[in-house]
Task: structure prediction
Amino acid sequence: MDYKKAADEVAEKILLYSQDTSGWRVIKVSKNVTVSSKPSKEYEGNIYRGEGIIKEVPHKIIPFMYLPEHRNKWDKALQSYKLLEKIDQDTGIYHSVTHSYGMGLISSRDFVDLLHVKQYPGGIFTTNSVSVEYSSCPPAPSCVRGYNYPCGYVCSPLPENPEHSKLVVFIQPQLGGMLPSSVVETALPATLINLITDTRAGLQGLKDRN
Result:
C-alpha cells in the first residue's frame, strides 16, 4: 500500500470536512462541546463532528492528542495505544484498543490506523487518519476489529484569543459486530464529548505538573 498517497488523500478529505458548512444537524451539546452529524459519503452510517475550545495553542494540542507517550496517560476511552510503524516524521501506523462501553453494551474494539499530521497556514494543525490492513497486527479474539473511515482533528488558533484554540474532531467509525444503530448513535456523540473534555483535563494536568 502506498501509505504516503493514502495520507495525502485522507488529509484532503479532512480539509474538505472542515470547510463543509451544509447539512450538519446539532445532536448534543454538553460540557461546552457541540456534536453534529450528517449522513456519511463513505459508508451507510453518519459522520460526526465534535467542536470545543481548548486553553492551549494548536502546536501543543495536536502532539498531546496523538503521540502514545501522552495519549496513554489521558484518554480514558483507550486500553492501549501504540505506534506500530513510523512511515516518516509526520506519518505512522497506530493500533488502538478501546475499553468496553455502556456497562459492556459495546464490547472492546480495536483499530489499526494510518495517521498523518499536517500543518496549514495560519497555525492550523491537523491529524488525518484512516484504517488500513496491516499484516503484523491481525484481528484478535479479545476484541472486535473496527474500521475508521476518514477521521481527524482540526485545531486552529482563536482569532480573538490566540492562546486558545478551536478543536474540531471528525469521526465515522464502522464499529463492527451486531450493534443496533440506536446504540451507535448514542455512543459516538458521547465519545466525542469525552475525548474533548479528557483532552482539556489532560492538558491542564500537564500544566499543573510543570
